[in-house]
Automatic annotation (TrEMBL), chain A:
InterPro entries: PCI_dom (IPR000717). Keywords: Coiled coil. The lineage of its organism: Eukaryota, Fungi, Dikarya, Ascomycota, Saccharomycotina. Residues 159-329 form the PCI domain. This is LALA0S01e02894g1_1. Residues 335-362 form a coiled coil. It comes from Lachancea lanzarotensis.
Automatic annotation (TrEMBL), chain B:
Residues 303-503 form the PCI domain. InterPro entries: PCI_dom (IPR000717). It comes from Lachancea lanzarotensis. The lineage of its organism: Eukaryota, Fungi, Dikarya, Ascomycota, Saccharomycotina. Residues 19-49 have a biased composition (Acidic residues). This is LALA0S13e00782g1_1. Residues 1-72 are annotated as: Disordered.
Length: 395, 603
């Protein structure tokens, strides 16, 4: 990967991310101080004569915008620059987009990069080629930051298919990188572990073309071996042990918990795939994960995915979620509900009919009697009817 | 002896050494002459200077100098030496040395050195070497020195080199290929003494050769001890390894160093030289690419080492490694056969070859298309106990007969050095257990406890498979897609249910129906929240595909390029798996959803 003119800005972000790391904070503030002096000089000079400001490169201006989190401005400056070549410009734009986490434009840039590669017929100048490789490796980082692990891996494999020598180069660190080579290797390693199905680890581990990469990425080889041997406990412990390291890396940390969780889910699912009944304490012991975590995560997995499993106490049991019996019960229940409604209506109708009949009967009798008491009677009847109706509704 | 006889001679020497341990003299000759031949042949390749003596008479390129009047006397003396008539030879040479031409004197004195040395060395019968008799040799060496000072000729180097190669031949891979070398302890010690005593000449004329030869013999002398002298030898070996020589010598030295490391492993001395062995294999292969010869002894240990270094990576499922080991062991065995080597090292290589052949069976049940190693021509002609044991082992393996297998295994492991093949034995035993599990147990039982499986898979006196190992076999078979019978575990009672009855989908959804039920708008952009922050979440489809709930992993990914493999994976993610038995579940799911809708409306 090329050195990045923005590594100072990354340093500031890293320091902001790891507030407890005094060493990092000191370096960042030193950097900011040096920038301030430099800039102060530049501004003072530029007030005197405009020609001096030309000595400030586009990169230097963009850095100040990045530190100020003024990404739109930074992008605009880069877009309008005429001195950087196309490849270099793309490389820097991708870095800015990673800063501001704008993923859609990155996908578009990826297309532009491909189109440019096609148009050049892959006859680059050395500089262009370096930029091209760096941009692609940055895309890996961008995919990882979005949690698109498979795309991250695929992007990396595309690079090394064309430039196998990149694997060797990742062994040594570059000066002033955007993200360090070891971070990149870790990002790719994590993506590989997450994206490749358990069943295919062995196929991947045996890829001859990746042998150099496996040598560079020492932990990955070990992880794969443990996973292939189904030593999930040891594997998960190893990952937990890496927690403090990865959680403090500005880039890796962002999707590290998600990667860990996804892998746990993958392993739970494998156990559910091969077993009818399994006890949570057993899983907890076999996988070296705390029992309450196993419980919560298994329950979540079953509920979220509506799996054909139920958790009864400490037992996870295979059970059809949607079997015909349940359906019949459900339909029977619905039938019952319908029947209840019908019964209710029937009763109401019955009531109403008898009321009406009574009324009519009374009416015909009343016609034969004197008029004044008849009216009172009718009013009483009406009151009764209304209160009956209210009772119905409330029941 | 021509070049072609070289292999025969070397082989015969080793063979004889095995059979006639009491006849030391004969051994000595075979041992020395054969190696001498080899070295002469090598030297001729890069040294075109005419050597007028010290060469075997029948070597076509070396003709006695016609203008050399003493050649008659010297060659007469040479013949006498061949016939071990040392005294007469000495007399003849004494005359030749008195001739006026100085270059003739040099030739004669060289012959005197050779003659007196051989006479002295052959008079010794047991260790420790009695150096008192060396006086006459020393005298000859001294006079050679003064003769050379008088007449420094242009072929002195070559003459002395060939003398050294004859009397003190390079030891090459003798540690591995000729376990009887120790019975030649006397000649090894004599040679070492000779090297020490001619140090002035050696370090002046041919310093590199002299130094490396001295180191070789120092190491060999140390190794003659019954105790473990690995620690003392190690610095010498490293010195030898780091010295730079002309390519021919370098191959010999590297062969010696490689053989040293292999023999320490064979003898269970820990030299901890895996990385050095890897380096050695690399540099020897490089040198061989430039060389026209492929010396069989070197090739046999080179192929063996290549496979040996891979043994730790062996597993029942890693086909690539076991195939490569198999091929390398076979190459090594063929070299040893051609050499006529009948040592326990040959048995070891044979054993390794048969065991790796067994690994090639994998889970195959149809053995028709398998090449049975014992049908190979090279093995058919063998007649040895180890072959019988191996054949029994092979038969018991393919017949799933644990008892007979255990017996044959024990018999095979009696083989010396068999500890070297430990990972290989372990893999073969494991493969047999896997095969019995799937081909015998799984088809017979519909339900069996893990404990019973452990009991039924026990091999002889070997410790029982652990419960965890049985589970690992089951789990790995699922992942390799090599489980021929469907199974489900009941991990509360430790039972395994075999058979299709247990086949049930994990979920009734498909990827599409699931995603559309999650997100009514049909977009797949939903994030699966795993943490408190949106930033730590991942796209839900990425999560689903990563945990692999809806898509069965693609199977045929072997031998693909990385990118192609990934494209297959990506394709499998987007392709819904074939709906077979799950279709009725899908219907139930749909009806259930409808019923739920109706019920909700009613309530």
């Amino acid at each position: 990967m090329n050195s990045s003119p923005f590594c100072g800005a990354v340093l500031v972000e890293r320091a902001a991310f790891n507030r407890q790391d005094d060493h990092l904070a000191k370096k960042a503030s030193e950097y900011l101080a040096s920038l301030h002096n430099q800039n102060g000089a530049v501004t003072r000079l530029s007030q005197q004569s405009f020609s001096i400001s030309k000595t400030t490169t586009t990169e230097e201006i963009v850095v100040t915008r990045l530190i100020a989190h003024d990404y739109t401005e930074a992008l605009a400056i880069l877009e309008n620059d005429a001195q950087l070549g196309f490849s270099r410009k793309l490389e820097l734009i991708v870095q800015v987009l990673i800063f501001c986490r704008k993923w859609k434009p990155i996908d578009e840039l990826c297309n532009r990069l491909n189109a440019f590669a096609e148009s050049q017929n892959r006859n680059y100048t050395l500089m262009d080629e370096k930029s091209h490789i760096t941009t692609r490796l940055l895309l890996c980082v961008a995919y990882y930051l979005q949690g698109r692990f498979l795309d991250c891996l695929k992007c990396f494999l595309t690079v090394i298919e064309e430039y196998p020598v990149v694997m060797e180069q990742l062994k040594d660190e570059n000066l002033d990188p955007f993200c360090t080579h070891s971070e990149l290797v870790t990002i790719i390693s994590i993506s590989l572990i997450v994206a490749i199905p358990l069943d295919n680890y062995e196929d991947v581990a045996q890829l001859e073309d990746l042998e150099v990469f496996y040598q560079v990425a020492g932990p990955l080889t070990r992880w794969l071996k443990l996973l292939i041997d189904t030593s999930y406990c040891k594997f998960l412990q190893e990952w937990s042990a890496l927690d403090p390291v990865y959680a403090s890396s500005f880039f890796i940390a962002q999707k590290w918990p998600a990667a860990q969780r996804t892998l746990r889910d993958k392993i739970y699912l494998f156990y559910l795939r091969i077993s009818n009944v399994i006890e949570i304490p057993y899983l907890s012991k076999t996988l070296c994960i705390k029992q309450d975590i196993v419980h919560d995560e298994i329950v979540m997995l079953i509920e979220e995915l509506e799996l054909n499993f139920v958790v009864k106490g400490l037992l996870v049991q295979s059970q059809e979620r949607y079997d015909v019996q349940n359906l019949a019960k459900d339909l029977f229940h619905s039938g019952q509900l319908l029947q209840d409604k019908l019964d209710l209506l029937k009763v109401r109708n019955e009531n109403l009919r008898s009321e009406v009949q009574d009324f009519m009967k009374d009416n015909s009798i009343g016609e034969q009697r004197s008029k004044s008491p008849q009216i009172n009677l009718f009013e009483d009847e009406a009151d009764n009817y209304i209160s009956d109706g209210e009772n119905d509704r409330s029941s | 002896m021509s070049d072609g006889d070289l292999a025969m001679a070397t082989g015969a020497g080793y063979g004889l050494a095995n059979d006639n341990d009491d006849d030391e003299q004969e051994n000595y000759d075979d041992f020395m002459i054969s190696d001498d031949d080899e070295n002469d042949a090598e030297i001729e390749m890069d040294d075109a200077s005419d050597v007028s003596f010290g060469e075997e008479a029948n070597e076509p390129r070396v003709v006695s100098h016609p203008s050399n009047p003493d050649s008659g006397l010297v060659s007469v003396a040479r013949d006498l030496v061949e016939q071990k008539r040392f005294d007469e030879a000495n007399q003849v040479l004494g005359k030749a040395a008195l001739l006026p031409q100085t270059h003739a004197t040099v030739a004669a004195v060289l012959q005197i050195v050779r003659c007196t040395y051989l006479m002295w060395a052959q008079s010794l019968l047991s260790l420790p070497v009695d150096a008192s008799g060396f006086a006459s040799v020393q005298e000859a060496i001294d006079s050679l020195e003064s003769a050379l000072e008088l007449d420094p000729g242009h072929d002195d180097q070559a003459s002395f080199r060939s003398l050294l190669n004859e009397l003190v031949p390079s030891l090459d891979s003798v540690f591995v290929l000729n376990p009887a070398w120790k019975t030649n302890g006397v000649s090894i010690c004599c040679a070492q003494l000779f090297l020490v005593r001619c140090s002035r000449l050696g370090s002046r004329l041919i310093p590199d050769l002299w130094r490396s030869r001295t180191l070789q013999y120092e190491i060999a002398v140390l190794r003659l001890s019954v105790e473990d002298t690995t620690a003392a030898e190690r610095p010498l070996v490293e010195k030898l390894y780091k010295s730079h020589h002309t390519s021919q010598e370098q191959i010999g030295n590297l062969e010696f160093v490689l053989a040293w490391f292999i023999s320490t492993s064979l003898n269970e001395f820990d030299a901890g030289g895996i990385s050095i062995c890897e380096e050695l294999v690399g540099s020897i292969s490089m040198l061989l690419q430039k060389s026209f010869t492929r010396p069989l002894p070197l090739m046999s240990i080179l192929h063996f080492t290549k496979a040996y270094l891979l043994l730790d990576q062996l597993s029942t499922t890693n086909k690539k490694v076991s195939l490569r080991c198999n091929a390398e062991f076979w190459e090594s065995f063929k070299c040893l056969e051609e050499l006529g080597n009948k040592t326990s090292f040959r048995d070891l290589v044979l054993c390794a070859f048969v065991l790796t052949s067994l690994l090639q069976l994998g889970q195959k049940t149809n053995l028709d298309d398998i090449i049975v190693p014992f049908e190979l021509e090279q093995l058919k002609i063998l007649d040895s106990l180890i072959k019988q044991n191996l054949e029994e082992l092979y038969q018991a393996f393919v017949e799933y007969n644990l008892e007979r297998f255990a017996l044959a295994l024990a018999a095979t492991q009696m083989l010396s050095f068999s500890h070297v093949l430990h990972p290989l034995f372990a893999s073969v035993v494991r493969l047999l257990q896997v095969r019995i599990l799937w081909h015998r147990l799984a088809v017979c039982y519909s339900c069996i406890s893990l404990a019973d499986m452990q009991r039924l898979l026990k091999v002889g006196d070997l410790p029982e498979l652990s419960r965890n190992s049985v589970l690992t076999i089951l789990m790995r078979s699922i992942m390799d897609d090599t489980a021929p019978v469907y199974f489900k575990l009941d991990l509360t009672k430790d039972l395994v249910h075999f058979g299709d009855e247990g086949r049930r989908p994990l979920t009734s959804y498909t990827r599409d129906t699931y995603l559309s039920s999650r997100d009514p708008s049909g977009q797949k952009s939903g994030l699966h929240a795993l943490g408190p922050l949106e930033a730590s979440a991942i796209p839900i489809d990425e999560w689903l595909d990563s945990i692999g709930i809806f898509n069965l992993p693609p199977r045929r990914l072997k031998g693909l390029r990385p990118l192609k493999l990934l494209q297959e994976l990506k394709g499998a993610r987007e392709m819904p798996p074939a709906l077979n038995d799950s279709s009725s579940h899908t219907t139930t799911l749909k009806l259930t959803e409808m019923a739920a809708y109706v019920r909700d409306m009613l309530q």
